[in-house]
Amino acid sequence: AHRHFSVLGVREIKGIELTNNANLSGIDLSNQNLTKAWLYGADLSGANLSNSRMILAYLNEANLSGANLSGANLRGANLIGANLKGANLSGAQLREAKLFRAVMPDGTTHS
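Below the sequence we write its predicted structure tokens.
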């Protein structure tokens, strides 16, 4: 059972702040505007973030393992220490993204 923000009538969640390691595993946030979202340590494992706009999003230490980030715009996003193991990054824009210590889709750690 995937959760959808659109069910709640939320169309734009730009700048949303979720703290305390929010559990959003499996959520469908495809095609959403998550620009400058604060998702520090969030569990987004298996989430559908395809084609989402996540410019300058703060995803330090977030669990994005197995997430679908295809076509997502992560320009300038902060992904320091994030877990991207098994994530789909095809077509994702990662220009200027901060990936220090991030676990990449193939399981290697970015330096």
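Residues 1-12 have pLDDT under 50 and may be disordered.
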